[in-house]
Amino acid sequence: MSKILVIDDDVDMCLLLKRFLSKNGYEVTLAHNGKKALEELENAEPNLVLCDFRLEDIDGKELLIKIKERYPRTPVIIVTGYSDIKVAVDVMKLGAYDYVTKPLFPDEILLSIKSALQKSATKQENVATVIMPEDDSKNSTKSKTITSGQYIFSDSPEFKNILKQIDLVSPTNYSILIYGESGSGKEAIAQEIHKRSKRKDMPFVAIDCGALSKELAGSELFGHEKGSFTGALNQKIGNFEIANGGTIFLDEVANLSYDVQVALLRVVQERKMRRIGGNKDIDLDVRIIIASNERLLDAAKKGKFREDLYHRFNEFSIEVPPLRERKYDMMIFAKHFLKLTNDELSKNIKGFSPEVEAIFKTYVWPGNLRELKNVVKRATLLCDTEYIMPTVLPFEITNFTKLQFGEVSEEATSNLQVRQADPAPPVATYSAPVLPEPVFTKQLEINEHSLKGASIDAEYEMIVEALRKANYNKSKAAKILNVDRKTLYNKMKQYKQFNSDL
Ligand SMILES: Nc1ncnc2c1ncn2[C@@H]1O[C@H](COP(=O)(O)OP(=O)(O)OP(=O)(O)O)[C@@H](O)[C@H]1O
């Protein structure tokens, strides 16, 4: 039986999740704060962690880093409110397996948990993805072996331009620098270049340099000999060696420490490397593709990245535009992700309603294709109509226009300021429908014109607003409303029903 650690400072949410997950065959441990969570991780050794992003004693990002440092192989699913989506997409880069948004839908959580547990059974390291040629037995390494997904194209000018560059550079041995926002498809391009190159029958190794700890980065990249440092209990083959003959993709390369950059320069210049603690040079024939969402020359000017390394890598560069600037491609990708999810869930959702298409084109997609994929996966799961309708889209997407004009909550508005820092968000023209409130639904019959009705309405709105601000954490909502938890519960009961699904 798989063990799940649920971390949430909302005691009721924890209990609901415990009941629901236990019913579905999981053994569940609870922790209401970060400190307890780290203790439970050691005691209970869970197979998966479901972690609320906002805890009172620790920031979700900080906790995730701690969990990943100590238990890199344990998948973590982040639970987040609508106003934290951008952050949630970012924390996936720190090694979270997935994120689910509140209000929680049981089927969505179960799907994410099942797929995380399935993947973690075959996955040993989370910083490297290795795609091996099918019959390669020589390279049966410690990293995960996957089959690459289908790469799709469109005939938009932006895509044709990318494709032309892929075609041009693939047969060469040039090092390549790919620029683009998080989730915009940089790794997918690197894989496509590898598949079209002479190296296609050798491994493709992708490393997320942002997820490498400073201490272990050298060993991950170059390997180590047994006993070369405390904790080096066995010999380890590094990812450069695994990629020998093939392609290595270094994502977020500017995150590598200065020391590792020096070692990397030697590899690039001399095409040789040594394992840490080793005394033998190993010849390397590896094509290097690097990606960054920050300009490396700027990083070099700030002293964060070695300029000589930048010039070595910059033999050819590709710019991937953000999804919001690729309106034509958007629906092609949406349909592709719908098809993948239909197959995965054995469903037959035919497509997207015109309203959904309009919403997609208005939204700014801070998490780019990765976010679109998650949104389509979730919508397909929740959809019980022929076409995907706005009601199964996340709140922050259907209410994007309102959030932009500060009509929803202060918290959402402050989140929007982060989004506005992104280059050229389009001017919103679509007035999105308001989703029915799925967690907390007003059920009282109110006579619209009575004074009592008006005050009940106002009270109801205040409670909903406080719950949203508190990310549906009732203790925090009670604090905002300046009432005790019990009073809030009674009020909620009065307005009826708290997430009956869970
Ligand atoms: N042309 C494509 N065809 C099909 N799927 C794609 C394509 N481009 C990207 N994707 C999918 O979109 C998602 C995000 O892409 P990818 O991981 O390549 O982005 P990235 O820019 O490397 O992200 P990050 O910088 O955060 O690592 C992945 O699930 C990927 O499979």
UniProtKB/TrEMBL annotation:
Do you know which Pfam families this protein is assigned to? AAA_lid_14, HTH_8, Response_reg, Sigma54_activat
Q: Where is the Response regulatory domain?
A: 3-117
Where in the sequence is 4-aspartylphosphate found?
Answer: D52
Gene3D superfamilies hit by this protein:
1.10.8.60, 3.40.50.2300, Homeodomain-like, P-loop containing nucleotide triphosphate hydrolases
Biological processes annotated in GO: phosphorelay signal transduction system; regulation of DNA-templated transcription
PROSITE patterns referenced in this protein's UniProt entry, alphabetically:
RESPONSE_REGULATORY, SIGMA54_INTERACT_1, SIGMA54_INTERACT_2, SIGMA54_INTERACT_3, SIGMA54_INTERACT_4
Q: Give yes or no: UniProt keyword Cell cycle.
A: no
**Presence of the UniProt keyword Transcription regulation in the record:** yes
Q: Any idea which GO molecular function terms this record carries?
A: ATP binding; sequence-specific DNA binding
List the InterPro entries hit by this protein, alphabetically.
Answer: AAA+_ATPase, AAA_lid_NorR, CheY-like_superfamily, Homeodomain-like_sf, HTH_Fis, P-loop_NTPase, Sig_transdc_resp-reg_receiver, Sigma_54_int
Residues of the Sigma-54 factor interaction domain? 152-381
Q: For this UniProt record, give its keywords in alphabetical order, as a comma-separated list.
A: ATP-binding, DNA-binding, Nucleotide-binding, Phosphoprotein, Transcription, Transcription regulation
Please identify the protein, giving its name as recorded: Sigma-54-dependent Fis family transcriptional regulator
The species this protein belongs to is: Segetibacter aerophilus
